[in-house]
Amino acid sequence: MHEHIARAMYYFSVHLLFASIVGCAAWVLTSVRGASATTKYWIWAATVFNFVVPVGAGIDKLWAPHLAWAAPLGAIGGPVWDMTQGRTGLVLALTWITGAFTMLVRLISRLRRERREVQVPADRHDGTSSFVADGILVSFDSRHPAPAVGGVLYPRILLPTGIDRLLNRQELNAVLLHEVAHAKRRDNLIRLLYEVSLCALWFHPLIWLAGMRMALYRELSCDESVIQRAQGQALIRALAKLAVPEEMMFLQATASSYLSHRLARLAGSAQPAHRAASLLLTSLFAAVIVGGVFGTVAHTACCFVIRH
After folding, report:
1. Residues 218, 221, 226, CA angle at the centre, nearest 5°?
2. Which element (helix H / strand E) includes 159?
3. How far is CA 271 from CA 17, 109, 199, in A?
4. What is the pLDDT of residues 191-212, one digit of tens each?
């Protein structure tokens, strides 16, 4: 039993090592200007996926007879074996369980709160307070102080009552373009999957970094859909009006946190992202992902050792 636990911990450690290398590469690549925010968003989403899904494990199972060349990574294997023999492993396990449970409770609490906020009382379904925009249901509700997308599997746009009087038609259309982009891409579902991953890997700083980068590029990429319709300036005006305290309207927390980045991008709409740069960025990241998976397999397949 001890050997099985040591094997599992060794594999997990090697997997995290190469996933961390991929995460660092994602940070470097997405810092390069020129590529689209949408490309950078998906790079960070793939980085999180790479952390939580050990692709190398599937390769080990399927092609184990052909991976006899794999060699263990002694720098990790030795400490892991020693750790599982003493109390250190138990302490780490209890620490992880405590952290994961805390993060899970936090996530469940947020989901329940958002579910209550998204639910619309039956007497509000009168057909006059809602409409459809590009296939997405849009509802007005005084309980929502800022434009937002509610729902995970079946998203809908929630607008504060009176926003159509605060914004002119062009500005409201720009806001809707942004929110529709969120809804059609199922950003709430992607965010939920990320937060579930965060519950398991709460101890890893790169997972937290990935969440912040995803949040930034999630907003910037939706702004790109507005820029492509030549509505960038209208969205800037809308953001300014929604941020005025006298109007009792406030930006959604995640969006307002990156307001300066968004305004800079919207103001520079005359410089669109280059497809070549996005393609190059995607190709480089794909190569890094493949290299990370290969590196994991190279040090885990068909072997574990390091007993003293």
Report:
1. 130
2. strand 156-160
3. 38, 42, 39
4. 999 999 999 999 999 999 999 9
